[in-house]
Amino acid sequence: MTIYPDPDSEKAIMGSLVFCIHHKQGCKWSDELRKLKAHLNTCKHDAVRCPNKCGSQIPRIMMADHLAFTCIQRRAVCEFCNIEFTGQGLEEHTGTCSQEPIYCEAKCGARVLRGRMSIHRVKDCAKRMRRCVHCNREFSADTLSAHGASCPRSPIPCPQRCDIGPIPRAEIDNHLREECKALTIPCTFRDAGCSFKGPRHLLENHIESSIGSHLSLMVSLASRQEKQIQALKSTVSKLSTNYTGTLLWKVTDWAAKMVEAKSKDGLELISPPFYTSQYGYKLQASMFLNGNGPGEGTHVSVYIKVLPGEYDALLKWPFGHSITFTLFEQGNGGSQGGVAESFVPDPTWENFQRPSTEPDTLGFGFPRFISHELLTRRPFVKDDTIFLRVKVDPSKIVAV
């Protein structure tokens, strides 16, 4: 086959300027076309067969790296076991070499030769599971010793060094409480004042021989406790005392109490005592549900009396401050209605002189405070309960 039609055309074409076919790979060569073949025989970017006959076509510039690192027919030595392999053989060997140090799969932090890993996991690994010989529970090897210091079944000697052998830790308290003969035990009447301490067998003898002295100690203890109880009762009573000058008296079970009042003459309800101020007069209200005096059988009667107080010696007498009784209506949506009666004590009334003892009189008040008829007609009683307020005029309280 004729490529060039005539010698002049061939000469012209073969003399034309061309670039190397590997120009895009970085070859800078350019010359006449006739010299291209000779250049390609030496061009470092031109591909040639691998001399190891691995079948690869590799540019001359990359041949050294290929022969050293990627040629499957290259000869290479494993850095861990020093055995020589072909390139492909080394790739297959990598990740399986028994001499390669790797981190423990149990994450104990140790690096172990791959060939010894199975032995390490069984014998040396800090994370291998081990069974406590006392309680039979499993722990990692690095926590087993810490468990041993608290294992409830681990045997330990008696802290009192008695002649009984090692005892499981969980049973020590019971041993000391029930069995240990070396333990020094206080007398069971220690809180009553007995100072005896001794071994268990001596304690039994002590209790049997000291019945009389123990009884005396218990009597003294009961006496002290009684005084303490009375002091506590007095303190509680003071803490619950009303010092506001206003008593809001809640009377429950109204129907039953009214029935009882009608069946018993002179039945009187007594309110809790209250003070006009912290250092003021002590007062108490009373109520006759079926009335008293002129209100008997038709009205509820209410009274106030002055009781002996702690600060009477410092107060002005007679008591002379106005008192207001108010019985509230209930359930009016916040607009509280009711019945109210007030009075100002007369200085000549004996009821308001300084009391020397608890007064036996009724005090002073209103025998006809509210009629039974009005009680049933208006909502003073709700849920079987009434509310009576007794208020001392705060602007006229005389106290220290």
From TrEMBL:
Keywords: Cytoplasm, Metal-binding, Repeat, Zinc, Zinc-finger. Transmembrane segments: none annotated. GO terms for cellular component: cytoplasm. The keyword Zinc applies. InterPro entries: MATH/TRAF_dom, TNF_rcpt-assoc_TRAF_met, TRAF-like, TRAF1-6_MATH_dom, Znf_RING/FYVE/PHD, Znf_TRAF. It is found in: Cytoplasm. Its main location: cytoplasm. One of its GO terms (biological process) is regulation of apoptotic process. PROSITE patterns: MATH (PS50144), ZF_TRAF (PS50145). The keyword Cytoplasm applies. GO terms for molecular function: tumor necrosis factor receptor binding; ubiquitin protein ligase binding; zinc ion binding. PANTHER family: TNF RECEPTOR ASSOCIATED FACTOR, TNF RECEPTOR-ASSOCIATED FACTOR 4. This is Uncharacterized protein. It comes from Phlebotomus papatasi.
